[in-house]
């Protein structure tokens, strides 16, 4: 192709000789290939040196045009690469942001799952709920987090006859001492409180005590509980004090303080 172009230009030179007027120059350009002519027409500004043959001027303009085109292509490729790089960086950034957001959401979910909202669902009795919120919600955010619950070792429920249930006590798995005397509770579920060692249900209408999970229980106070009919103890009980004065049951321990059992009072 390059050889054909040279041949055309030499033909132009033979025909034009040294005639450099615009008509001759136009004829010289018209002999070029369509591609080269289009490149020449796209150059924008043309500097014509009248001391040069027309074909040399034409080749010079075409060369400049090609360099200009190459430069534009180079700039375009750089811009394209920057755009692609920007898109990739943005995608990576969005991905990392999503990972961070997802991790934060998971942490929030874990934290929320670990938190216990102090409401009627968790603590149905109004007075007992108010007592829990005022005494054990350290940061007063309306929730009991794991640390707040684990720190609760002793609960002394106010001696209020209006308190009919201490449902919610199961959230305190490290609880060691519980006093509910003077309340109106009839049932007491302590299956989620295996660390309990002291229990006082005196002066309540409690009917049943299921203490089968309380293997560490050593002291039970159940004075003046006339409605108490059933007591369930663990097989390997450590209890050494079971006071049931004024109750329908009498619970006994041997001389070493080991729990023997409970039975109804006679007469």
Which key terms come to mind for this protein?
single chain, 267 residues, alpha/beta, Leucine-rich repeat, LRR (right-handed beta-alpha superhelix), five-stranded parallel β-sheet, two-stranded antiparallel sheet, 6 helices, 13% strand, rod-shaped
Give an account of the 3D structure:
The protein is α/β, with parallel strands linked by helices and 267 residues long. It folds into two domains: 1-113, no CATH class; 116-264, Ribonuclease Inhibitor (Leucine-rich repeat, LRR (right-handed beta-alpha superhelix), Alpha-Beta Horseshoe). It is 41% helix and 13% strand. It has helices at residues 2-16, 22-30, 34-41, 54-114, 126-136, 146-150, and strands spanning 116-117, 143-144, 154-156, 177-179, 198-200, 208-210, 219-221, 230-232, 241-243, 249-253, 259-264. A five-stranded parallel β-sheet has the order 3-4-5-7-9, with no helix packed on it. The radius of gyration is 48 Å and the shape is rod-shaped. Residues 5-21 and 44-50 have low confidence and may be disordered.
Secondary structure blueprint with pairings:
Elements: H1 2-16, H2 22-30, H3 34-41, H4 54-114, E1 116-117, H5 126-136, E2 143-144, H6 146-150, E3 154-156, E4 177-179, E5 198-200, E6 208-210, E7 219-221, E8 230-232, E9 241-243, E10 249-253, E11 259-264
Parallel strand pairs: 3-4, 4-5, 5-7, 6-8, 7-9
Antiparallel strand pairs: 1-2, 10-11
Helix pairs in contact: 3-4
Report a brief summary of the structure.
The chain is of the alpha/beta class and 267 residues long. It contains six helices and eleven strands.
């Amino acid at each position: 192709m390059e050889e054909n172009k040279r041949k055309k230009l030499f033909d132009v030179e033979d025909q034009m000789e040294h005639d450099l007027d615009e008509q001759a120059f136009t004829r010289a350009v018209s002999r070029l290939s369509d591609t080269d002519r289009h490149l020449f027409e796209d150059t924008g500004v043309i500097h014509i040196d009248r001391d040069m043959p027309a074909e040399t001027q034409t080749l010079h303009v075409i060369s400049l045009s090609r360099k200009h085109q190459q430069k534009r292509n180079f700039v375009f490729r750089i811009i394209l690469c920057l755009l692609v790089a920007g898109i990739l960086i943005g995608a990576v950034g969005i991905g990392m942001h999503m990972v961070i957001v997802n991790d934060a959401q998971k942490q929030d979910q874990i934290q929320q799952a670990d938190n216990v909202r102090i409401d009627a669902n968790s603590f149905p009795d109004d007075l007992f709920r108010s007592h829990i919120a005022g005494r054990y919600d350290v940061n007063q955010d309306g929730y009991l987090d794991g640390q707040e619950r684990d720190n609760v070792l002793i609960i002394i429920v106010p001696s209020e006859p209006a308190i009919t249930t201490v449902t919610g006590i199961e959230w305190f798995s490290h609880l060691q001492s519980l006093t509910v005397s003077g309340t109106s509770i009839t049932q007491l579920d302590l299956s989620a409180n295996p660390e309990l060692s002291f229990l006082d249900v005196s002066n309540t209408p409690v009917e049943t005590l299921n203490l089968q999970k309380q293997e560490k229980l050593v002291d039970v106070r159940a004075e003046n509980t006339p409605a108490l009919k059933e007591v369930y103890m663990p097989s390997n009980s450590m209890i050494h004090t079971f006071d049931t004065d004024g109750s329908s049951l009498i619970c006994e321990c041997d001389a070493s303080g080991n729990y023997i059992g409970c039975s109804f009072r006679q007469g």
